[in-house]
């Protein structure tokens, strides 16, 4: 059974491929019985290519989704030129995210799916957050509790440290942070993915996972104590594993999620395996949030037409995943 509330899909950067992907996603899903969504965006960007119904409330989306794209209007201030981002339209991008979160927190949207944003464009308009994830946490009044999970058909990964330099990541890596991130991942796999007894693989930090201290001591002083704490709390986790072997074809089936120590350690294997179907999921917040695992692609952005040059696979995967997670939370999927 599908969730009771539609998903809220945000505007993203209007000069990127978000509007094109939105139209293509609706075309792909409108008769599928899954992934019903409404778009918080500027209908003027899209209504020449697909039938649009301007709605005033999320509750109107279900009734029209099969025949038209439900749009809850968020208008851009400046004219949108595909491929040419304009900081004057940052307010619309931000308002779209804010409204989507408000609807999700109120239970009027089953989850939030975010189209890609350009962080430098928002920063030029005074946006004080590094990206979507941190802004979502602030909107939920839970700054610092946000955790990133990347999901593809072949692999799930969770980085313990995220949007900081590698030097900063090493400075801030602690046993308590590893434990907190792993506990959130374990809870999410049970609640949102239907995995009753998740298996966690904990990555090492250094070459060969430190080689018993010969190539670094973090595995001994930071990572192993975290694993011991997690096991004592009844969580099935093993490691630390050498990162150069734990993502192999034979290793991946032995666990449900890899807990990685820094951003690229997690994202490089996932994107190498399946860039097209990767989905960014935010854990640790009281709402479901997914996002395609790619950027705004200004270089290929164009007007919304009946065809789409951009690959919609990742957005479709994000919508379907959010739809499934919402169904699990509502007890409509097991």
Question: What can you see in these coordinates?
Answer:
The protein is of the alpha/beta class. The chain has two domains: about 1-145 and about 285-334, Isopropylmalate Dehydrogenase, CATH 3.40.718.10; about 145-275, Isopropylmalate Dehydrogenase, CATH 3.40.718. Helix content is about 35%, strand content about 15%. The strands form two sheets. It has a ten-stranded mixed beta sheet with strand order 2-1-5-12-11-6-7-10-8-9, sandwiched between helices. The chain has a two-stranded parallel ribbon with strand order 3-4. Helix 2 (about 60-65) links the parallel strand 3 (about 50-55) and strand 4 (about 70). The protein is globular, with a radius of gyration of 20 Å. The model has no long low-confidence stretch (mean pLDDT about 95).
Report mean pLDDT, rounded to a whole number. Answer: 93
How many individual helices? 10
- How large a portion of the residues is in β-strands, by DSSP E? 5-15%
Principal-axes geometry comes out as globular
- State the total count of DSSP E strands: 12
Number of domains: 2
Could you say what the CATH topology of the largest domain is called? Answer: Isopropylmalate Dehydrogenase
Enumerate the strands of the largest sheet in spatial order, edge to edge or round the barrel: 2-1-5-12-11-6-7-10-8-9
| Helix and strand sequence | EHEEHEHEHHEEHHEHEEHEEH
Instruction: List unreliable stretches of 5+ residues.
Output: none
């Amino acid at each position: 059974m599908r969730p009771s509330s539609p998903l809220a899909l945000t505007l993203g950067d209007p000069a990127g491929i978000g509007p094109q992907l939105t139209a293509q996603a609706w075309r792909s899903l409108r008769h599928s019985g899954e992934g019903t969504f409404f778009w918080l965006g500027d209908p003027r960007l899209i209504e020449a290519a697909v039938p649009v119904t301007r709605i005033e409330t999320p509750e109107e989306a279900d009734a029209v989704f099969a025949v038209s794209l439900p749009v809850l209007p968020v208008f851009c201030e400046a004219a949108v030129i595909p491929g040419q981002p304009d900081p004057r339209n940052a307010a619309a991008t931000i308002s779209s995210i804010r409204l989507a979160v408000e609807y999700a927190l109120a239970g009027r949207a089953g989850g939030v799916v975010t189209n890609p944003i350009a962080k430098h464009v928002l920063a030029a308009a005074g946006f004080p957050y590094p990206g979507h994830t941190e802004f979502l946490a602030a909107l939920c009044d839970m700054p610092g509790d946000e955790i990133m999970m990347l999901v593809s058909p072949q692999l799930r990964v969770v980085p313990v440290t995220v949007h900081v330099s590698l030097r900063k990541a090493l400075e801030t890596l602690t046993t308590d942070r590893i434990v907190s991130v792993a506990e959130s991942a374990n809870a999410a796999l049970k609640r949102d993915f239907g995995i009753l007894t998740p298996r966690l693989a904990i990555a090492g930090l250094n070459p060969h996972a430190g080689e018993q201290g010969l190539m670094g001591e973090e595995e001994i002083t930071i990572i192993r104590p975290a694993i011991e704490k997690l096991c004592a709390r009844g969580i099935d986790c093993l490691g630390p594993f050498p990162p150069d072997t734990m993502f192999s074809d034979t290793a991946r089936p032995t666990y449900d999620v890899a807990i990685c120590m820094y951003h690229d350690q997690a994202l490089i294997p996932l994107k190498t395996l399946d860039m097209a179907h990767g989905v960014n999921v935010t854990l640790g917040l009281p709402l479901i949030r997914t996002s395609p695992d790619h950027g705004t692609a200004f270089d290929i952005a164009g007007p919304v037409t009946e065809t789409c040059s951009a690959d919609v696979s990742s957005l479709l995967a994000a919508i379907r995943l959010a739809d499934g997670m919402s169904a699990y939370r509502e007890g409509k999927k097991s």
